[in-house]
Each structure stands twice: as structure tokens, then as C-alpha cells.
Amino acid sequence: MTISLRHSKIRLALHPLREGTGRPLLLLHALGERSPAEVPAAAAGWPGAVFALDFTGHGGSTLPAGGGYTCELLMGDADAALGHLRSATLLGRGLGAYIALLLAGARPAQVRGAILCDGAGLGGGGPEPGAEDSPLAPPAAAGPPDPFALQELSRDLRPPDYATSYAAQAARRAELEPPLAVCAAERPPWLVAVLDTPAARALSLAEALATFAGAA
Amino acid sequence: MRRVDSFGVEIAVHEWGREDAPPVLLAHGGFDFARTFEVFAPMLADAGWRVVAWDQRGHGDSGHAALYGWQADVRDMLSVLDATSAEPLPVVGHSKGAGVAMSLIHSLPRRFTRFVVVDGLPSERPQPDVAEHQRSQIVAESLAEWLDHRRRTAGAVRKPGTIDELARRRGRMNPRLSLDWLRFLVTVGARRDADGWRWKVDPTLRFGGFGPWRPQWMLASLSRFPVPLLGILGLVPEPMGPETTPDSVRPYLPPGARVEAFADTGHFVHIERPRRVADLVIEFLA
Fold it and tell me: Which of A36, B93, B264, B278 has the highest CB neighbour number within 10 Å of its CB?
């Protein structure tokens, strides 16, 4: 049964994919995607409950009028789910991996490990502004996913030092050492920089799940 | 007042002057609203301009959106531009409104003729009213505090009060403006409910915040600004101001740009010195 959470004016859909005891795993989908209907095979080894969140403008969550998406807003989406679960290990794909990093930095005591995987929207709009273009033509398609989300979040800038400041916060307060596991093969500049900090290490997904599942 | 639909968000547009006069757009700053131009705009109208200002989403008489972001503000401005004129026109922007206008002018330079930026030229210091866009220094406490605020905002309402109470509260953001002016702003920027006056600005909007944007990027793009530029600066530092000085911005100015600095004047230059700012603008746009 989908859980409906409130984030400001948005209704978010949080999907319980599997019951279990112990710390839950929270799945954060990639740009333009939605929560899977079942626990992905690669995450089946997680010992506890598994939940998946639809971000604003995606899946079963509210599709608001007129856009205005930022990654910080989506961090707020993920925080609403974290507030419901109290504590979780995050598994993010693409855009969801970047959001998992932000939330791990913002709530280091509640996020018990964040696993960053490949997926759409991992690189965002790059590390700095490019040549001026015309981003403003209205997207034609109806969502979900919200075309404004696709447009705005794929242009969202991700400077490496902005990302590493979240990684530093994640490491400063988290009890896990290191709190970030990088499984992604694609390495945009922000992820290269994060991986270069003591807060992160490269692991396979199976290793990462085993590491965070075993941590107290 | 007319309303422009910006992809489902209703934007309130306020005008001064003759409908058949050449249009000029005015862009207000963060936590302000179009009618803060109530003294300045009529001066431009008297000089033969159709002055068109809009309330940013969540501000003044515009709709409260579900989401707020820089790209959305830029797109809302384009919606107002499209609903106003197909011909290129000049823009006057204050503070955050100037930053939003600069983004749109960079994207669509052929839609614009000239640009006046009133205390919104960038500096190395993040501009307080666009902090959510520019402040990139991350402190764990401020992150958690912001997220806690997001958790609380569902159903939030602004605190009611008398005209004087709201005027005094606003005085903290506008310490140099007279109480009479602030009282006037309450009567146009707040609405009267049964239990008192409330500012119309969306209660989910919050001063401060953080994001990946750097004021340095804005400075770098300034040097290739595509239309003639007049910068107006107030030299007295204020809570809402960017604290840009002629010396700090000069290395970044595009060729031919002109900067006029007002001594003994704060961030709201067009409110403190409406006649002198209007005269500069009228001369520059002529």
C-alpha cells in the first residue's frame, strides 16, 4: 500500500516494496523514472525492509504546475521519506544518487550509508555554466515525468566543491566510515571529486549493500 | 492589473502609463513586489513609457507556486515579455530581479535593447535576496534547519498583525526606508484578513538557503553582456544589498557600460532617490 507523504505543497508517493525488520533501504530513482514495482534483483540481498520514493513530478507524486525544480527541493522530498522511516540506507540511481549524496550530508545521523549508482541525470548540467542557450521553450509532452523536471534537473549545475562539501558533512557526523559508496561507472566531475574524499570509496553494489547492512 | 499564465502559474502584471507608449519592463527584487515601484514607475510613465512590472511567482498578487527556482523565475519573465511585446524592449531590474533579467537577456539578447541594473550588479558576495540560488557554503546546521523548515511548511500561514506591526517587521529588511513608506507597502503588499494584515508573499518562501550557483559565474558573464548596460549602485551597505562598489565591479564590466554610484543611499536606490534614478534611466533609454 503506497504511503502518501507531504512535502510542502507536494504529495509524495512512498512505496513499501518489501517488509522487514532492521534499518530500511530507501531507493531513489533516476531522472525521468519512477519507483520500481518490486525490489530490484541487485538489491534483493538487503536484509531489512525496502522502500522506494517517487520524486516530485515523477511516478505517483504530485505533478505541479509551472516547474521550479532544483536538486535541493528533491533533497527535501527524500528528507520527507527519511522523516517517515527515521533512519535509512539510501540507494540512488543517476539523479537519485546525487540527491542521496545531498541528504547524506544534510542528515548524517539518520542516513546510514548512501550508495551512488549509474542512471539518468547523474551529471546534471555539468560543473559550471556553459555558453548561454535558450532553455526556455516550453516542453510539449504531458507527464509524468514532468517535462519541466526533465528540462530543469538536467541543467542543474553540480560544481565539484559543492558536492564535496556535502561529502565532508556526511563524513563529519556519520558513524559509518566511509559513509558513501560509489558504484557508478559513469563519473561526472562532481562524482570524481567526491570519490577523492575520505568520505567515499568505490565498491560493487553487492559489497556496498553488505557493508551498510552489516554496520550497526 | 492583468494576469499572465506562465505554464499554470498566474503572474500578476501591473502597468503605469499610456497603453500605446513604448514598453519598458521593471523587475523587482526578492521578497518585494511590483507595487514597490509605485513612486518610481509613474516618473518613467510621465516621460512617455508604458511601464510594465510583474510580481514574481509567490510574491505580491501572483499565484503561490508549488515550486520555486531560478529557471522558473526566468521563464515567468519570458511569459510576461511574450504577453507584452514582440518587439525588443528595455528592462530595469532591481537586486534579484536584475539577476533574473540578466539570465533572460543572455539567453535571448535579440528581445532586448538596453538594461538598467539598480543595485543588482554582482559582487563576490552572494546577494542576500537570491541566497538560495547563490550560497554554496554548506554548513550542516543550516542544511538541517532548512530541511526542518521544509517539513513544517505544509499549510503554513503568515503571522497576522496591524499595519504598524507589519511595517516594523519589514523595517528589519528595509532599515533606511521611512515608516510611512513601509505602512504604504503593507496596504498594497499585504491583505486584510479577519484577524489582521498578512504579507501576500508565499509563507513557504524563506530568506536564506543554499545552492550550487556562484556569484563569480555572474561576474564572468557580465563582461560579455549583450546589450548596453547602465549600472546604478547605492553605496551604503544594507542587509538586502550585494555591497557591490564601482571598484569591485569595474574589471568585469562590458565595453561601454556606465556605472553611477549614489553616496548616502542604500540598496533601494529607486525608492530613496526616485527622481534622480528616473532621470538617469530616462536619459539612458532615450
Answer: B93
